[in-house]
Amino acid sequence: MQLTTQQQTAAFLWAFLLGLGISVLYTAISIIRTLSTPSKIQLFISDTLFMIIVSLLNVIFSISQTEGKIRFYVIAAELISFIIWYISVHRPLIGLIKCLYNHLYSKCELLKRKLIVLFINKTREIVFVLKKSFKQKKI
User: Fold this and answer.
1) What is the pLDDT of residues 104-125, one digit of tens each?
2) Which of 6, 14, 67, 85 is the most buried (most CB within 10 A)?
3) Whole-angstrom Cα distance, residue 64 to residue 77?
4) Distances (CA, A) of 22 to 15, 113, 134, 137
5) pLDDT tens digits, one per residue of 84-106
6) pTM for this structure?
7) CA-CA distance, 50 to 57, in Å (whole number)?
């Protein structure tokens, strides 16, 4: 049985939202990968889970909206929304996060160096005072 125009339009719009949701999930995974360096095993597991989740979402969507049939306009809607999100939000957001992470990392490194220098200077002062006090007690 053929889907009506209203059903096809609704399926297209829902597929657009599904593609947007998949894009948001992909962005979240990318942010996690940006902030921490995953091992090859972690990359494999996260990619596999992402593919399984996306596949299940698409199967459930096609069963509920298009009578279980693959429709070109559904795939096109998902791809269009994914590309729009990727270009307009994902890339600038990842760039911003990398910039903030590098800035905070450099500030933390600077703070760490200052604390180390402060610790060394205080330790030298304490050692100097202790040496001086031991020399005075020997006399």
Assistant:
1) 888 888 888 888 888 898 888 8
2) 85
3) 16
4) 10, 42, 70, 75
5) 998 998 888 888 888 888 888 88
6) 0.69
7) 11
